[in-house]
Amino acid sequence: MATDVVTRPEARGSGKYDELLARCKGMAPVPTAVAHPCDEASLGAALDAARVGIITPILVGPADRIRAVARAAGLDVTAYEIVDAPHSHAAAARAVELVRLGRAELLMKGSLHTDELMAEVVRREGGLRTDRRVSHVFVMDVPTYHKPLLITDAAVNIAPTLEDKRDIVQNAIDFAQALGISRPKVAILSAVETVTTKIPSTIDAAALCKMADRGQIRGGILDGPLAFDNAISAEAARIKGIVSEVAGDPDILVVPDLEAGNMLAKNLTFLSRADAAGIVLGARVPIILTSRADNERARIASCGVAALYAAARRR
């Protein structure tokens, strides 16, 4: 018997990205090294963001192949610099070098594996490391939620330690502030709202909240552990007797590990018709990660929030 295939819906979102992108108006396009944009999706993503004035792409990869992809897709790349690199590994290295030389303020993933690009980013010699652990944030436009929702980390850190989570939280707070949220509310998620040694993520959540009390995490209001329902719904928190500034109104959801975050983000995308823009933080510059499954709104939003963060860091 045939079954229906669940496909990603195209008509999604509720205008929350428009509010963020409006803040990009009046900003100069940000020079952006695009590593190996050798398929229509990745090249189109860069050109879409350039078309609306958010970035000025520097296309790094096999020049003949980039031009061939552009011709086949009906895309015009004549206005943009192409830096020739023979293959994806060389393109990643060259794109990182352009950032180090100050020629680019943003780094954008093209049609190469994320691991290949990130290996160049975190390289001890010649990379873009800082003293902060790199982490990924999804900026989600969920139609059933009242404001943009940040989810971290769903793409880079597989099983983060407590120290890793401290950086993950601080990265997300700094990023949220760059988006105009002066004191972000941070929900540290687990399966339950009580602290128990049987669920290690509840111990981490409690420790992160105490670290915020002691000034080891700055700029946000933290609460946790919170189960997802208590984090998102003030009514669910009230029924369970949870008194919290965060419950029902978080800006940031911090997940226990990559698997939980990835499932949560994709659940919201496919079942709740959410858009998901992605960015990597903690390196010397923001890193834009787009997916072939992203629609134009999400691609442009990924570039837009990265440009806002770069502008905030510049200040």
Give the SSE map.
Elements: H1 16-22, E1 30-35, H2 40-51, E2 55-61, H3 63-73, E3 82-84, H4 88-100, E4 106-109, H5 114-121, E5 135-141, E6 149-152, H6 162-178, E7 185-189, H7 200-213, E8 221-226, H8 228-232, H9 234-239, E9 252-254, H10 258-271, E10 275-281, E11 287-288, H11 296-314
Parallel strand pairs: 1-2, 1-4, 2-3, 4-11, 6-9, 7-8, 7-9
Antiparallel strand pairs: 5-6, 5-10, 10-11
Distance between the termini: 60 Å
Number of helices: 11
Stretches where pLDDT is under 50 for at least 5 consecutive residues are: 1-9
Q: How do the strands of the widest beta sheet line up side by side?
A: 3-2-1-4-11-10-5-6-9-7-8
Helices and strands, in N-to-C order? HEHEHEHEHEEHEHEHHEHEEH
Look at the helices and sheets and give the structural class.
Answer: alpha/beta
CATH architect. name of the largest domain: 3-Layer(aba) Sandwich
Count of domain modules? 2
Q: Determine the CATH topology of the largest domain.
A: Isopropylmalate Dehydrogenase
Major sheet summary line = 11 strands, mixed
- The amount of helix comes to 40-55%
**What's the total number of strands?**
11
Outline of this structure?
The protein has helices spanning 16-22, 40-51, 63-73, 88-100, 114-121, 162-178, 200-213, 228-232, 234-239, 258-271, 296-314; strands at residues 30-35, 55-61, 82-84, 106-109, 135-141, 149-152, 185-189, 221-226, 252-254, 275-281, 287-288.
Defining key terms:
Rossmann fold, 40% helix, 11 helices, 315 residues, Isopropylmalate Dehydrogenase, alpha/beta, single chain
Descriptive notes:
There is one protein chain. With 315 residues, the protein is α/β, with parallel strands linked by helices. The protein folds into 2 domains: 12-129 and 283-315, Rossmann fold (3-Layer(aba) Sandwich); 130-282, Isopropylmalate Dehydrogenase (3-Layer(aba) Sandwich), CATH 3.40.718.10. The protein contains 11 helices and 11 strands. The chain has helices at 16-22, 40-51, 63-73, 88-100, 114-121, 162-178, 200-213, 228-232, 234-239, 258-271, 296-314, and strands at 30-35, 55-61, 82-84, 106-109, 135-141, 149-152, 185-189, 221-226, 252-254, 275-281, 287-288. It has an 11-stranded mixed β-sheet, sandwiched between helices. A hairpin with a 7-residue loop joins strand 5 and strand 6 (149-152). It is globular. The termini are far apart. Mean pLDDT is 92; it is low at 1-9.
